[in-house]
Every structure is written in C-alpha cells, then in structure tokens.
C-alpha cells in the first residue's frame, strides 16, 4: 500500500518516540538499579513499578479533560507539541548526574510528557487516514517504530559497551549520553508531523466562546460523552475488555527488564534480547495488519490476548535463565505490535470522528488505569511475598477477564 505524505509523517512520529520507549524499557531500569546501590532486588522492582504507576495515573487523570479541549479545531497540534517538548526537555535532563530518587522523579515527569503526546498522536489517526486504511497505517506506525528505534538504540549500546575501552569514558557517563542521542532522534522524527499535520475533524469555536465557557462546556461534555459510551454497548464492552487485556501488555513491556534483572540475568543479555524483540515486532506488526484485513480486526486482537496469557504463564513458571528470557523476548515481539496497533485502529473505527480526542482521552483512561492496576499489583504482591514471579502471575488473571469481555462482543460471536 502506498502511503500519503501525511500518513508517512504520522508513522515517523512512532519511529521517533519508540526510541525513548525502547530506552525506558531496557537501559533505564538497569541504570536506575545501578545508581540505587544497596537496595534489595524486590525493592528495585517495587520502586520501578510504583514509578510506572504514578506516571500512568497522572496521564489517565489529565487526558479526558485535555482531550476534550483539544477537540476544538486547531487545538490538537498545540497540545501535542506542548507535551512533546515537555517530554523532550526532561529526556535530556536525565543525562545530568543525580541520585536515584531525583532521577526517578525526572523519569516519571518525562514519561508523562511522552505518554500524553502519544495520546494526542493516536487521536490524529482519524485525521490522517480513512477507516479502510486505518489498520494498515496504525500497524505500520508500530512496525516502523520498532525497527526505527533500534538505530539510536544500537548507537547507545555501542557507546555504553565500547565507550570505556575505546573513548576512555566512564560507563555511567556513556549511559547518560544515551538520553541525549535518543532525544535528538525523537526531535528529528517529530518535526515532519508538526509541519504537515492539519486537524480534519474538530468542534468549531463560536464567536462568544470565552476560555471560561469552553472549559465549563468541556466538563459538561465529559458527562455527555460518558453517557454516550454507556449507551453504546459495543463500545462500552470493548473499552472494558481493553482495560483488562492491555494491562497485561503494558505491564509485561514496562516490567520485563526489571523482572529479569531481579532474577539475576546479566544486563547485557537483557538489553540484547529486547533489541531482538524490536526486529521480530517489525514484520509481525505489518503481518498483523494484513491478517486483520483478511480475518477481522477483533479476531486478531483475541488471538493476541490468548498469546499473552501464555507469555505470562511462561514468565511466571519457567523464566529463570538468559536463554529463557530470549524466548520471552521473541514471543513478546510476535504479538506486541499487533495487539497495540489493532486496538488503536479498532477503537478509531467505532467512535465519532469529530470527538476523536475526547474519546481517545477516555480510551487512554482505560489504558492508563489498566497500567496503574497492573504495575500496582506486581509491586504490591512482589513486596508482600518477596517473590517477583507471583507478582507477574497476577497479570494473567487480568488478561483472562479481557478475553472473556472480548468474546461478549457481537462481532466475536459471529
């Protein structure tokens, strides 16, 4: 399929932000563990889970309100740029030497900027393409994001592992410089979208609409939107299902490196295995988009949820060695991009386009609160039992609930 210029530029943002996502899920947890000396492995997993929980909770609370404001014509790009720049500045700030707690605070704020920008980015999907092309464009975003993010990541790894011997630089300094490299990459692949994006669907602002009236209308509109969602049984059932199953997906992604590190797996093995995940995810996401066109978007989402249940069971009961972590990484790569891309595009097809940001704001509530619940469960159960495997196992229950709710949709019942 040949993409339009706007579709290509939209996909490029995935290439840019995915570099930071990859760094956050691989190098950053290891770096945090290194500067948090003397902590018990279970304490490290708990601290990292709590950081993910706080970041997700803040985004979940902000997005419905800001999303509704962004639905006014011309506002979406403004909110997108604001959160992107916030995340970018804080990404660069992580390159400064600091203790564990200040670093974790900066990381959380950076993650809020990153994830908030991605909410507005997701909502742009309805403006940049059509329903018929939505699965393919969304899947391409994740696919090229996975493979494109490996370019700065490999540069960062070469610097971290080769910097001390080749350049005579300290390993910790090389790790901090990776934030600068990643930030520059993110900026470069964001500028084309900023220059070309035009909001196609949006609410028009009246002549007498003051800022106060718009804000008041926004809060009243949120109630109306909640009512419309509650009355739409298909949309409500899907959002509840999404709430549960995406929890497993996000938690596996965000906690994998921290969990592997707590099991004593070498950090080099962890990072390289997650790099392989990116390469596996590239063709898998594209194939998933094509399979959705043949077998149906919802059906392919269900297949991925079942696969993730198996992945969680494998991680909880069998993951002990570096080789088994590599198996886990490959399995995640096969389904990660597909389930995220199709979840995004399926939602875009069943919502009113002129309220896309407002609806995606609620979509983000369900996704972010799910992430809050998943990482919270992992953190609490791990802290209570001093056994990270039991924390991971709790994710499987949420995936099963998501599967049951998906099967309640009329389309799933055929």
What does this structure look like?
With 414 residues, the chain is mainly alpha-helical. It is built from 16 helices and no strands. The chain has helices spanning 5-35, 41-70, 75-93, 100-123, 125-128, 131-167, 171-188, 191-196, 211-231, 233-262, 267-295, 297-317, 322-349, 356-385, 388-406, 410-413. α2 (41-70) runs parallel beside α4 (100-123) and α10 (233-262) runs antiparallel to α13 (322-349). The longest helix has 37 residues, at 131-167. The radius of gyration is 21 Å and the shape is globular.
Write the layout of secondary structure elements.
Blueprint: H1 5-35, H2 41-70, H3 75-93, H4 100-123, H5 125-128, H6 131-167, H7 171-188, H8 191-196, H9 211-231, H10 233-262, H11 267-295, H12 297-317, H13 322-349, H14 356-385, H15 388-406, H16 410-413
């Amino acid at each position: 399929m040949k993409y339009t210029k706007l579709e290509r530029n939209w996909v490029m943002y995935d290439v840019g932000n995915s570099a930071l996502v990859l760094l956050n899920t691989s190098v950053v947890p290891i770096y945090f563990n290194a500067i948090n000396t003397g902590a018990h492995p279970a304490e490290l997993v708990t601290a990292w889970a709590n950081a993910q929980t706080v970041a997700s909770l803040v985004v979940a609370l902000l997005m419905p309100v800001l999303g509704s404001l962004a639905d006014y014509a011309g506002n979406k790009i403004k909110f997108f740029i604001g959160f992107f720049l916030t995340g970018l500045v804080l990404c660069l700030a992580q390159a400064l030497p600091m203790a564990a707690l200040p670093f974790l605070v900066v990381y959380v704020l950076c993650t809020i900027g990153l994830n908030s920008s991605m909410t507005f980015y997701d909502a742009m999907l309805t403006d940049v393409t059509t329903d018929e092309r939505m699965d393919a464009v969304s899947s391409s975003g994740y696919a090229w994001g996975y493979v494109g993010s490996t370019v700065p990541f490999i540069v960062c790894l070469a610097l971290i592992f080769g910097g001390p011997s080749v350049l005579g630089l300290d390993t910790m300094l090389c790790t901090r410089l990776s934030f600068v490299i990643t930030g520059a990459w993110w900026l470069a692949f964001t500028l084309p979208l900023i220059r070309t994006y035009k909001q196609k669907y949006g609410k028009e602002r009246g002549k007498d609409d003051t800022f106060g009236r718009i804000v008041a209308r926004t809060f009243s509109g949120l109630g109306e939107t909640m009512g419309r969602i509650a009355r739409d049984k298909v949309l409500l059932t899907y959002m509840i299902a999404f709430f549960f199953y995406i929890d497993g997906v996000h938690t596996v992604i965000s906690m994998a490196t921290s969990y592997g590190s707590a099991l004593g797996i070498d950090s080099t093995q962890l990072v390289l295995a997650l790099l392989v995940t990116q390469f596996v995810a590239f063709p898998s996401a594209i194939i998933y988009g094509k399979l959705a066109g043949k077998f149906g978007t919802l059906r392919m989402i269900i297949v991925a949820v079942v696969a993730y249940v198996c992945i969680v069971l494998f991680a909880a009961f069998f993951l002990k060695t570096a080789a088994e972590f590599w198996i886990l990484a490959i399995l995640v790569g096969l389904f990660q991009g597909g389930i995220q891309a199709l979840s995004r595009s399926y939602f875009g097809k069943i919502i009113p386009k002129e309220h896309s940001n407002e609806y995606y704001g609620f979509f983000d509530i369900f996704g972010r609160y799910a992430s809050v619940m998943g990482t919270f469960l992992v953190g609490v159960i791990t802290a209570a039992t001093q056994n990270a495997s039991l924390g991971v196992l709790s994710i499987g229950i949420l995936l099963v609930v998501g599967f049951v709710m998906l099967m309640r949709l009329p389309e799933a019942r055929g």
